[in-house]
Amino acid sequence: MPLNDYNLRDDERPDPDKLLEAIERQHAVAEKGKLKIFLGAAPGVGKTFAMLEAAHAALENKVDLIVGVIETHGRIETERLIDGLPLAPLKEILYNSKVFKELNLEWIIEKKPQLVLVDELPHRNAPGSANSMRYQDIIYILDAGIDVYTTVNVQHLESLNDEIYQITGIRVKSTVPDSIFEIAHETVVIDITPEELIERLKEGKVYIPERADHALNNFFTSTNISALRAKAMSVAAKSISRKIISYKQTAGITDPWAVIDNVIVCITDNSFTPSLIRAAKRISTATNGKLFAVHIESPFQKGSKESNLRILNHKRYAEYMGAEVSTISSPNIAKAIVEIAQEKNIRHIILSKSIRSRLGDFIFGSVVNDVIRSSGKINVHVLSERPLEERTHPAKRLVMKYINLKSAFAPIPLLNSALMTLVAIIISVILREFYIGDHSTAILIFLLPCIFTAYKYGFYPSTVAIIFNMLVYEFFFVEPVLSFSVHKSTGLISMLIFLFVNFIISRLTYILKEQLRTISIKEKASTKLFIFTKMIAGAQNLDSLVALITGGIKDTCTIDTALFINRDETIDFVGSCPDGVHFEVKDMAALNWAWKYKSTSGSCTNTLNTSAWLFYPMRTYDYFPGIMAVKLDGKASFLEPDNYDLFQSLVDQSAVAVSRMLLLKQKTLSNMK
């Protein structure tokens, strides 16, 4: 085959930045140990048995391995497989006059074998252990460059907790974050039919007879097992999908692969957006895919306070529906949607139909049509229900959405633009009188006030400046001069060229300015987040940490802040900035609701919004350490996407710091006992 046949078109070549990112990610993974998860739908399917068989096969291949901890549950078949495998000594921990035997993390890391077997991934360690959960021990082992085999049942995944409860009626308390599957190198589903598992229960191979009878009448029904099997298969499919996405990014493949049907929905201030999110959720649930939601910030659509609030609520609703929400800045909305769909291996894009007329689509473009044309092999779903906005007159919608009359006719931009136009007239007249330059020179001179206005004051004032300068140019420099009439076709062509060139250059100038502004905002936000993270990392105790968090958020966001901490599943006030803040009855009601349902409440939300405070739950992977409260008092700037995203990042860092401090305090108390 000729060498030229291997050449790629420009649009087929891998993105250099994404390629570099994928290579760096692979390099980082290569330095860590590899995690292999044996996943089951229920206890007794044979996860530990399969893991031990894999260990014997590895031992035959001269792999240096150690059994860190195995939970046999008295199963003879499993105990026999332990014979011949090197065992690590368990660590004895004294707690409440009882001795608990746990994984000896320090010994394993010091010994540093190639492979270690750690059974029961969601196991909760005894108080006094280095980590509260066994999956945290595994992360430390992987960071030390040691491979790990482990086992887990699907009902222990944090994201499936509510669904498992609906299926089985049992609330699983010991859970692991889904992120553990994101770092897994391989996920193996250990599967047997419901009939086989029920037979194993009856034979006493899973539980002792008394527990087996109870399990058969409750958890281990044929219907429950079938539903859990489906969940286990779905989790494995998503794990495979993540690997495929990484490979596609490295290889520069943009078409979606039909491995798992991921879905993306676009978030706008449109009143129909919640319906779009629900439709996207139905499709992702039916196809066992992952739901993504994206909001595209365009420099041409600056939202009002009400618009930003609607977008914020729609983001929260998407998160509530289980979506991974992101915000992207781009002047080309359709291109941004398709790019993120290709990056995430999306197979379904959910949009609403355009509410503009055909003339409006022709003038301003249609995001829906552009997405459909550039989507390739991605399915595009266009929902046809009419949003509330469509029930207004088209001309009114056009003015409300795209024409900011207050900004366009602001006095200062108009005055400065007029002064620069006067200077352009004087310069052009002088050049004409001395026979220097022609019509093209005048066009270039009158271009300068429009570019200046676009850069200094924005898109709408520059549009007014373009029209004004076109009229001035026509009046003074198009024959017959000092008249708004045009007698020659060349004069008309000159005016049209003037209008077109001015509009394009002013538009590009405005886009460049907005992109620079966005980069500057994100750079400042990154700097603030870095300073905040570095500051709270130096806290010596809980009191100093609370002071640093509340003071840091107060200084960064210029907003009153209060912090509530989780103490034995109750919420307690621990500090605020400034000191002495007061909470009314309606504020406490919003706080209790946020804590009970682990969701935002209070000001600018749909729940108990008469409160002046916004209550935001703090969350780590598997724990809610508290509630962050901020007093809005009608501060519209706080609801702007960049400011709110920074606030969320600060709360996330605070949650990790508070969780670590509470864990350290618990460990200290345990050691004292």
A few lines on this structure:
This protein folds into 4 domains: 19-251, Rossmann fold (3-Layer(aba) Sandwich), CATH 3.40.50.300; 262-397, Rossmann fold (3-Layer(aba) Sandwich); 407-513, no CATH class; 538-672, 2-Layer Sandwich (Beta-Lactamase), CATH 3.30.450.40. The protein is 52% helix and 14% strand. The protein is elongated and about 105 Å long.
Give the secondary structure arrangement, pairings included.
Elements lengths: L15 H15 L4 E6 L6 H14 L4 E5 L6 H7 L8 E5 L2 E5 L2 H7 L3 E4 L15 H10 L3 E7 L7 H8 L10 H4 L3 E5 L3 H9 L6 H9 L4 H30 L10 E5 L6 H14 L4 E7 L7 H16 L3 E6 L3 H11 L2 E7 L5 H7 L2 H8 L4 E5 L10 H9 L2 H4 L2 H23 L5 H19 L1 H19 L11 H49 L4 H16 L3 E7 L2 E8 L7 H13 L3 E2 L10 E6 L7 E6 L9 H32 L1
Helix pairs in contact: 1-10, 2-3, 13-15, 18-19, 18-20, 19-20, 19-21, 20-21, 21-22, 21-24, 22-24
- Which secondary-structure class do the elements indicate? alpha/beta
Q: Helix coverage percent of residues?
A: 40-55%
Under CATH, the topology of the largest domain can be stated as Rossmann fold
Shape: elongated
List keywords for this structure.
673 residues, alpha/beta, Rossmann fold, 4 domains, five-stranded parallel sheet
Describe, in plain words, how this protein is organized in 3D.
The chain is an alpha/beta fold and 673 residues long. It folds into four domains: 19-251, Rossmann fold, CATH 3.40.50.300; 262-397, 3-Layer(aba) Sandwich (Rossmann fold); 407-513, no CATH class; 538-672, 2-Layer Sandwich (Beta-Lactamase), CATH 3.30.450.40. The chain contains 24 helices and 17 strands. The strands form four sheets. It has a five-stranded parallel beta sheet, with helices on both faces. Strands 10-9-8-11-12 form a five-stranded parallel beta sheet, with helices on both faces. The chain has a five-stranded antiparallel beta sheet with strand order 14-13-17-16-15. The chain is elongated.
